[in-house]
Amino acid sequence: MAIPIEMPKLSDTMEEGVLSAWLVDEGEEVSAGDVLAQVETDKATMDLEAFDEGVLLKQVIGEGDAVPIGELIAVIGEAGEDISDLVDDAGGDGAAEPEADPDAEVDPDADAEDASAEPEVEPEPAPEPSGDGQLSERTPEPVPAGTDAEGRRIKASPLARRIAQEHDVELAQVDGSGPEGRIVRRDVETHVEKQEAAPESTPEPEPTTEPEPAPQPEPSVPEAPSYAMPDEEAAYESEGITQMRETIARRLAESKYSAPHYYLTVDIDVERAIEVREDLNELAEEQGRAKISFNDFITKACALSLHDHPYVNAAYRPDEGEIHKHNRVHIGIAVAIDEGLITPVIRDADRKGLSELARETRALAERARDRDLEPEEFEGATFTTSNLGMFGIEEFTAIINPPNSAILAIGEIRDTPVVEDGEVVPGKRMKVTLSCDHRVVDGAKGAHFLDTVKSYLEEPMNLLL
User: Fold this and answer.
1) Which residues are tagged catalytic?
2) pLDDT tens across 402-446, in order?
3) Largest distance between two CA atoms of the chain
């Protein structure tokens, strides 16, 4: 019996996936646990495993295609099994196949796409001469949707066909970049962008039969310098939107416009914390342990503070009519990668020492940049931190990472004059800004939380107790 393989939900925020590479060819045998393909989600590239054994009968989508969760991407079954009904019901390549002759022999190894090819169209008759002796063009007959001018079915992914239909785009006009010229989503989107950017064509004047006047000599005028851009220089570069960028845009827009944000900023004296960190790193080097970053101090300070301020470690659940105050502390660390932003999660951060936090944070950040995280490593954060201090940013505000109720934005450590005992002396300060969801965290609650974080960083020995 044929078994459909559908696009799985590989992360909590995933709505569609891109099949980045097939690892098994059609006709190959597979067993349960074999990796069929690699799928790019909004957060990582993950393996798609088979849960049954059989033969990969059909790759329904091609490499580079993006399809929604639950859509058919492959079929596994017994060699020679007829899967046309299954592929047609799921949309297949988006074109219905003609009814088969029941008396005709069926080649089990034939490609389903070849079987759906329509009969050849008779060639158009040659143009006939018009009354004035010129060749007149005949109005071409309409071509069935999803076929080219010669009646051949156009290869295109289901998503590409849907986008083309939404924008009234003829697939025959689109150049495919997928395997064997298959049209995928980015091809249709690029075609639509070019259509929207193209200027309206100006109709050429009709030729006149009147004789042209003899050319008159023109006065010599110095030619004005031309400042026009070269024709080959484009006004902009087009870049497709990745799965990660789509998810970032959607989720943060939802957060910004659904959660009433407000912001609290404090300036923290970190001179003592810097001294303690230097002493600890000397010990870490002697013992062969990972060096502790200042961000590890902040992670530990936030983790301990969240115990005393449960509403900051909570989630607003309007669909359930509840506020969930989490009993455990899982801190997401925002990590910038080429495609966007991802937040690997330090679980039970309050129960881990600084050295363990340093080692785990560095390992997760490295795997995040390689897009090699497992779902459990980037899901389930109860609070998030974002640090731009290493880029020289003194102060900024961050958008809350839903469903969290707060996020801490961390600025750079700066040298600044401070007043101590009536005298101006050099000091080291750092500004942090807490973005709060006012539906959960009132102003006083957010202020008390920041005061606790500040006390831990200004008296860092308390982090070691």
Assistant:
1) 438
2) 999 999 999 999 999 999 888 999 999 999 999 999 999 999 999
3) 105
